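Reopening this ticket.

The earlier resolution said the output was attached, but the attachment link was broken on my side. Pasting everything inline this time so it's all in one place.
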Amino acid sequence: MGITTADSEFIKGKVPISGNKFQFVHEAIINSLEANNSNCVQIEITFCFSSSLFDHIWNFERVDIADNGDGFREDDYERFIAWGDTGKKKNNRGSGRMQFYHCFKEIYVCSLFCDESGKKKKRSFMANSTDFVERNTMKIEEVDQSVELRTAISLKNYIGKDKNINDLDIDDFVDLLRINLLLRFYLEKKEGRTVCIKVEFKKGDKSESREFSNEKIREPDKNGELHIPYERVKLSNNKTEFERSERYECIRWAYFETSASSKGGNEIKICSKNIPVQPVMLNDLNKNCQANGKHYLTVFYGDIFDAPENVKHSIDGFTFPLKKDFRNVELFLQEKEEFIFFDTIKDEIEKKIPDIYVEIGERQKKQKIKAEEIAKKLGIGSEYVDQINVQLSDREENIAEKLYKTQAKKLAGNAVKIAKIDEELRSINPAVKDYELILSDLVNRRFVLTTEQDREELSKYVIRRNFITELLHKILNDELYCQQDEGDKRREKEGVIHDLFFKRRTETDSLNNLWVLNEDFIYYHGYSDTPLSKIKLPDGEPFFNIDTLTESDKLLLERRPDIYLFAEEGACIIVEFKNKDENLADHVQQTIKYCGVIANYGKLKIKKFFCYLVGEKLIEKDLDSEYKKTVYGDMCRNFSISADNEFRNPIADGQLEIIKLSSLEKRSKNRSRIFAEKLGLACTD
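Inline output:
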């Protein structure tokens, strides 16, 4: 009996959608490999996108997956429409195809196959995410006996979880697919089978394609076996304990070198049906580190990971129990009953990793020693070395910057805690009975934050901030020598201010003084004096699809915001500095123009902009009436951004704040004075 409409929601509940956003592609590939008895498997994957109102925006329409397999014969068709049919293969339970129904509303199948008499026929039918297979759509037709066997499945109307599927890049997709199929391709080649996959992206009347096969797959750089012991129940004194038995499962592992440009980085994964299913997270292996310009993939595989009862229906994890799962089930356990725990699997893998990654391990140790030496030389506590992410490719200056940034973050956090404790002093009432206890608690909490080492580090931190405030004061009064040298025609009045806050043509990985504007800004990822076209998302992807823009739009991306910061999701910060002699009212449209370009053409949809126009001179009567005074006496107004189309509909909101440098100096000085006085330091007035 096939799947009925009444059962559909129940079945989809039992088989949740996979956490792997491309599991539907992996499922189709596995089906193609298992349905093909030839030594040459050909698979074609075609993503089709339709155009939208904007030339550079495409909508994912469907994906077609075809192969030269044996096709949907009668028994294959009956298994497809039935739920939980395990007749296809030993390790098959028929639940993988549920990912098609989770991700697409409509499914079309067209298959050329040979029937029992040897005649070639075509079977076609339709399925949908609500009723599953529509039996009344199934048709069988005789075809010319010269046609080649072929099965094509078309998945339409995407309803999956990937919100960025419209922006899918063919090279990123192929790179991910190639890495995930590396083990499977190697084992297929070892069995004497050639597998070739062609990926094509169609956008309107344009298309681009990539091909890869297992013909050039080489042997793993390392491989071996690992024994996973069973744990036996041992009942004693009404307590449940486990001891290792003599029985074990043998699993295999393979270690591959991959390109340093691979999106996956260094990965350790457990496979089912020889395709990665679940990553193993290990603290000692840096995901992005490289050795000899390579990344590394280690995969663990074996019969135990292929058994259906050990794999989640969603095919993105395993069902092995954890020892903690047995805390409340002692009464149901039998003496000498045996289990394999995922804790044990992970422990055995972790023991093996140092032997596999021996070269990386040695280089990481050397880098850590180097980081400790740099920290000592800079007078930074050694505890910060364990808190930074040291990569093998890091040079001394990179490590130093990471140490300074980590130290600053901690010290800033301590400073905030100290300020809160000081604020709590105001709530103390000396007349209450437990006044001394409350005061002692505050003193103890404050003491924890000001140990000798912290006092020294915090003192340097406050002194540095005091220097920055003093530099700002001198710039405002033209007291720097570089400002007084009239013979230097190259001097930049605005540049001096800009570089004080955030060095031009750098990223926020560098040390900056954006705390003068806002304490949170030093933690945001961003750019200084960088063309919009060069800005990248925090994950390293380009912020704009340059190739999809017109020549006139590309010119807009050559604009350079003084500072661009990514804030929380869907929001960004733009800062523009002006020479202290320029009227800020003459430049209020500049940041708003940047916002218009970003909101209309950026990959990441920014719907909230926080803009700051910073200088010193402001003729307030030149501002329109929408500007209002802020709590600090600066000026602020809200604005909206319109879509770059004929409708001009609003697509984002923004806020522009005009701030005087003297106002920032005053606020900065007040903050510095608070901390300096508490530490007994001199603070410049």
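Reporter confirms the inline version is readable. The chain has 17 helices and 22 strands. The mean pLDDT is 83.
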